[in-house]
Write a structure and sequence with these properties.
It contains five helices and ten strands. It has an eight-stranded antiparallel beta barrel, surrounded by five helices. The chain is of the alpha+beta class. The protein has one domain: Hypothetical Protein Pfu-838710-001, CATH 2.40.320.
Length: 214
């Protein structure tokens, strides 16, 4: 069995992730159970834009550092989700790519495209003008761990300024994730991916997060 490496591409991973207001105990156990990890993943920050579609829950689109990354849902096994890369693109982005790859992934009506290439700012304005799309700002402060050879993180997340917390475990090996979930107490929570969490926070899905407290 190949060992997982943080930040390295591998065959498609399975993932458990959840969102809520308090994972103090679970994140403490992650830190205590973790094997040593590279210093570069001890603490990482990022600013991203997620593109949400009212008609699509199977393609996860985010923009970071001027690059677009779309992942597509594959399957659920034992409550864990598997996602595969669908496309990667950079801005300016071509009309052809928007027509053939991006808007089909959103599963929405195609807007009128009058230019051959679009900057990031022009694309975001196009999204904001679309009745079935939203551009949501997400800032992440992530703390990386490695438990049972699964890549884990505890994250402080700002979603359009709303602060929530996330905790996860991912690997190509399902049994390793399930073991990690049991040891840390993550198994008591609902599996909630970023798309679902953001939609709940902006009011597109009428469901709470995994835990809510003052």
């Amino acid at each position: 069995m190949a060992q997982m490496e943080i930040g390295k591409e591998s065959k498609p991973r399975f993932e458990f992730r959840t969102f809520g207001q308090n994972f103090d105990e679970e994140s403490f156990l992650l830190s205590r159970l973790s094997a040593p990890v590279p210093e570069k993943v001890w603490e990482r920050t990022s600013e991203e834009i997620y593109i949400l579609s009212k008609t699509n829950d199977v393609n996860n689109t985010k923009i970071r550092n001027g690059k677009m990354d779309i992942k597509t849902f594959v399957q659920v096994k034992e409550g864990l989700e598997q996602w595969n890369p669908l496309m990667k693109g950079e801005f300016p982005i071509s009309k052809e790519t928007l027509i053939n790859e991006v808007f089909p992934a959103f599963k929405v009506e195609m807007p009128e495209l009058t230019k051959e290439n679009y900057s990031l700012e022009e694309f975001i304005q196009m999204v904001k003008a679309h009745k079935d799309l939203a551009a949501v700002r997400v800032k992440k402060l992530r703390f990386g761990y490695m438990v049972n050879d699964t890549i884990c993180e505890f994250a402080e997340v700002l979603i359009n300024g709303a602060k929530v917390y996330s905790i996860n475990s991912e690997s190509t090996e399902i049994e390793d994730i399930l073991k990690t979930m049991e040891q840390t107490g993550m198994n008591q929570y609902e599996n909630i991916n970023y798309l679902q969490a953001i939609k709940r926070i902006i009011g597109w899905i009428d469901k709470p997060l995994a835990n809510e407290e003052f």
